[in-house]
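Whether sequence alone determines local backbone shape is best considered at the level of individual chains. When preparing material for the folding task, we compiled for one chain both its residues and its backbone structure tokens. No coordinates are needed to read the tokens, only the vocabulary itself. For completeness, the protein is quoted in full, as a sequence line and a line of structure tokens:
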Amino acid sequence: MSNKNWPGFLAAGIGTAAAGIGLALHHKKQKEASEEAVIFGLICPMEEETTPFREAMDITETTRLSGLTFYKGTLDGQTVVLSQCGVGKVNAAVCAEILCEHFQISYLINIGVAGTTHEGIKQGDIVIGNDAVQHDMDVTCRGYRPGEVPDMFVSYFLADDDLIALAEQAAKNCELDGAAVHTGRIASGDQFICGGEQADKIKETFDPYAVEMEGAAVAQTAWVNQIPFVIIRAISDNADKDAPTSSYDDFLPLAVIHSFSLVRRMLLLAGGEEAPKA
């Protein structure tokens, strides 16, 4: 099963960035026949990643569910529901499920920072996830592939092509202080990767562009709910021995700014508005 059955939502004729990219005014979920207003769900794991979005929003409703706070309102002309899920796959899955079921979101964007084991990607760069895998899901002794979820027959959860295209277009019109934007795999696990055999194994097995702790759980939750999703991660560290200390702390603020800037450009372009550089 893939998200290829979902209707594309980008309006015809991307044209220039100034012309913008239009989202369809309504999104039809496979599980429902009725049309609904477009709502973007935004998930950030940490307070540092969530605060810029919350401060920029016009919040109209605040809801507490399952120990999490959800902020509904508008941002850059779009209706959004924002939540800080907390660190780790279970926290991320709980938050994503609430967004899908309670708030009936149309699209899901997971935003945050990540490490990288990929040569050519540097701190401050952005990775747009085209698929996501759980690097710590390992039932290979029973004949499953690395990362494959038993009885689901899925290793890699595919991001929505139109959301990927929207992010790539937004990046062309976004001031990122010279940072590069890459599209590639996200590998997630309940571990902070800091070099050694663990990092080497993840790189050899999955060849991810970014390594973090939530994205694949968000992706799986979106997949089972048939909600188009994409993961946007800014690189804070090189997933090496320096990652837990100076490397991560030094680059976290820059990484947060870059991911925040890109997602705001996505929302502007989704509404067909011009997205001027900051």
